[in-house]
Specification:
This protein is mostly helical and 271 residues long. It has a single domain, classed as Formate dehydrogenase/DMSO reductase fold (Up-down Bundle), CATH 1.20.1630. 82% of the residues lie in helices and 0% in strands. Helix 3 runs antiparallel to helix 4. It is globular, with a radius of gyration of 18 Å. The protein starts with a helix and ends with a helix.
Length: 271
Amino acid sequence: MHALPPTVFLVCLELAVGGFAVQLWADWERLLSRGFVITSTLILWVFAALALWARLALPFAAEAGLAGQLEAGATLAFTGLLLVYMTLWWAGGEGGRRAIGALAALAGWAAVLSAAVAHGAQFGVLPTLVSLTLGALALGAAAVAMVLGHWYLVTPALSTRPLLGMTTVLLAAVALQGVLLPVQLLVSNPAPASDSTAAGVTALLGPYLLAFLLRIGVGIVFPLVLAAMTWQTCRLRAMMSATGLLYIAVSCVLAGEIAAKTLFFLTGVPT
């Protein structure tokens, strides 16, 4: 049960931060409608608020220390700035909106970096940061792209560029997860924690092997196939099919990230 609170926190934070990053790109390129941005930002804000609640209300092993305080502070700032950004969009004001969006994105990634420092001592901060970053991009891109897919059903003339871009981010992030996972297991061996790291890898490939295989199959392999199919379907402007594929993709990526973070807090190995 000790793995549940930080798992809830990290998965919600990943979805909110990664989703806002890909949405902000499309927003700055002026590829999105006002209604979509407000709706999508509201959804992302809900997940950011859930992450903040989990960080402040549930017991954490990493509560103490500077990294833990920065993690909580950055999450609070990210959640607040998302609300301001959404309010500016709703009010129709242009002034300061891009600056607030940039600050919100910086606060979100500061929370991810702080989380890597706070929770990644056993296996190493860099592998943990890579895992969190790729997880955020994969989960966020899948979620926002799935929401965007619905806009094409009522606005058929909308450019395919934002959905193609988000699907490309999903495809690249999941592919990098698949490539870097065995590399991390083979070469990451920080000297100060070599014994605990070896024990974590042994547990991952021993008692938790079934869960690890499910993480790979459901969270990496299947989403990779689905992302490729979605990208091709989007190019053909078959948006209803693309949206259906994204429903399955976001479910698989979410399940994979939940499994990955649970295994991380059980073994100390970022997957």
